[in-house]
Write a structure and sequence with these properties.
BamD, Outer membrane protein assembly factor BamD, mainly alpha, TPR repeat
């Protein structure tokens, strides 16, 4: 009786195993290799339909099934582009790094570097947050400008670099204002001077000079305050920041006229200040 029960159990177990195997095969169809042109065109159709995630996966499949095909090289780059369009910037950067590493002499390498820079650039956050991504973007934009100076990508990279630099200067100004509001004037001065030293071409320079003037006055350094205000007036005479600094000096009873001597004796171009 025990033997019969055991035999029945074995048969039932085998039947169950076969059933599970059948179900498994229904869930996961057997791997079928497809022609490379069919795979690539299917991925391109998905991209045109803005099915970016599916398109990226389809381009990846081209490379997986036909790694030595000329289409595999193009598919790697197109996969990165699809990830970029889908805002999957980390995946795009990974694919682009692989493309650049495997195909350094490919004519599309300049575009790969450019798209990598854009993938960082699109992730730049507001000035109140950590600016590591902004630095990555600037380094990658510099890569494009340095490696491919005569390309169409370099021209756009230069424009975006200017915006990136302005963003970094904005971060220094934000920190400087924070210190200034807390009465930590030496720390604030260091931040404002960094803007003048590293980011002289940005829109933040007039405000940096004005806030330096304020900070020097708060520390009782009237000579430095007048010198800084004179640089501000010489380089940005119509700026409201200069008008504010001038009014601040007058309001503090500092002799700003006296034959205009403080102005003419200390007027300095911004580039000669440091």
């Amino acid at each position: 009786m025990l033997r019969k029960a055991s035999a029945k159990n074995v048969i039932a177990a085998c039947g169950l195993a076969l059933l599970l195997a059948a179900c498994s095969s229904d869930d996961k169809p057997a791997y079928v290799e497809r022609p490379v042109s069919e795979l690539y065109n299917s991925a391109q159709d998905l991209l045109d339909a803005k099915e970016y995630q599916k398109s990226a996966e389809a381009f990846d499949e081209v490379e997986r099934q036909h790694p030595y095909s000329v289409w595999a090289t193009k598919a790697t780059l197109m996969s990165a582009y699809a990830y970029y369009q889908d805002n999957k910037y980390d995946d795009a950067i990974t694919a682009l790094d692989r493309f650049i590493s495997l195909h350094p002499a490919n004519p599309d390498v300049p575009y790969a570097y450019y798209l990598k820079a854009l993938s960082y650039y699109e992730q730049i956050s507001d000035v109140g947050r950590d600016q590591q991504m902004t630095q990555h973007a600037m380094d990658s934009l510099d890569d494009v400008i340095r490696r491919f100076p005569d390309s169409q990508y370099a021209r756009d990279a230069k424009l975006k670099k200017d915006l990136t630099v302005d963003h970094l200067a904005g971060k220094e100004m934000s920190v400087g204002r924070y210190y200034q509001d807390r009465g930590e004037y030496l720390a604030a001065i260091n931040r404002f001077k960094m803007v003048l030293d590293k980011y002289q071409t940005t829109t933040h320079v007039p405000e940096a000079l004005a806030r330096l003037t304020e900070s020097y006055l708060a520390l009782g350094l009237e000579g430095e305050a007048k010198r800084t205000a004179s640089v501000l007036g010489h380089n940005f005479p119509g700026s409201p920041w200069y008008e504010e600094s001038y009014d601040l000096l007058v309001g503090d009873g500092i002799n700003t006229r006296e034959g205009e001597s403080w102005w003419h004796s200390t007027t300095t171009a911004l580039g000669d200040w440091f």
